[in-house]
Amino acid sequence: MNVKGKIVVVTGAADGIGRALAKGAHARGAKAVICADRNQAGAAEVAKSIGGTALACDVGKDADIISLIDETERTIGPIDLFCSNAGIGSFRGDANNAAANSDAEWQRAWDVNVMAHIFAARALLPRMIARGGGYFLNTVSAAGLLNQIGSAVYATTKHAAVGFAENIAISHRDQGIGVSILCPQAVDTTLLRAAGVGAQHVDGVLTADQCADAAFEGVEAKRFCILPHPMVTGYMQKKTADYDRWIGGMAKFQRSLRGNATQS
Fold first, then answer.
1. Which phi and psi angles does 83 have, rounded to 5°?
2. Mean of the per-residue pLDDT values of the chain
3. In the predicted model, is pLDDT for residue 197 greater than 50?
4. DSSP 8-state secondary structure symbol assigned to residue 87
5. Could you give the CA distance from residue 91 to residue 261 in angstroms, rounded to a whole number?
6. Are 253 and 149 in contact (CB under 8 A)?
7. To the nearest 5 percent, what fractions of the chain are helix, strand and coil?
8. CB within 8 A of 119, min separation 6: which ones?
């Protein structure tokens, strides 16, 4: 999909990759860009800079997603590209129990990292299908393809997001629905900087603008899996070639990170 002349919605647009996606859509000639975020002031600032529209939205709430879609289509027009970008990360796992995060942490991550994509698709799919097609760009993470050392919460929800996007792509391809998942490894955002020690050992940190550029190139090519970091392809191949060896390698890497954390 070429975004020129299209109506584009971006969630999590106040900062990071979302802000870069909103600005990138505008730069590529989008007819309208709707910047949605819980941080309404931040979304308004981004929208003002590109002549877009800001709307408040907590993507973890079905009613907010429905309101965002209804308001956009009522006042601006049919949504062509929905960038389901907002996400949250929990990097503070318990070294003695990977499942130890509270029910509230697990639920909030599930709502934002998984259900937000489901809410958007549930509300938009019937409309898009009725008018002949549409496109979803779901920001996931390389963690959804590989894993996330130190955070079972993040890794689990991101894996689920990949599975849902695959199913939408399979189920609705013949009805004109396109889906891409954006799976960067590390992007210089507030989320990465909050990750602490592990972030210091990730190779190839990109800027949010570089990530957005890769996203739009992938959407234009209608690629399902967009990998701004090419090395992730190799990691995926090693994982599928020998799962047990890959897990052993990841466990070894985790040991080295714990050693670095102890020394720092």
1. -95, 95
2. 93
3. no
4. -
5. 14
6. yes
7. 55, 15, 30
8. 59, 61, 62, 65, 66
Domains of the chain, start order: 7-233 (3.40.50.720)
- What confidence category does residue 200 fall into, taking pLDDT thresholds of 50, 70 and 90? very low
**Owner of token pair 């994509």:** 117
CB 169 within 8 A of CB 179: yes
In the block, tokens 């890769």 appear at 214
List, for residues 57-95, the tens digit of each pLDDT value: 999 999 999 999 999 999 999 999 999 999 998 657 788
Bridge partners, residue 179, by sequence: 136
DSSP string, 173-241: GGGTEEEEEE--S-BSSHHHHTTGGGGGG-S-PBPHHHHHHHHHHHHHTT-SEE-SSTHHHHHHHHHHH
Taken as a whole, the chain contains a residue count of 264
Q: What is the mean pLDDT of residues 172-177?
A: 98
Residue 126: exposure state from Cβ atoms within 10 A (0-12, 13-18, ≥19): exposed
First-last CA distance in the chain: 47
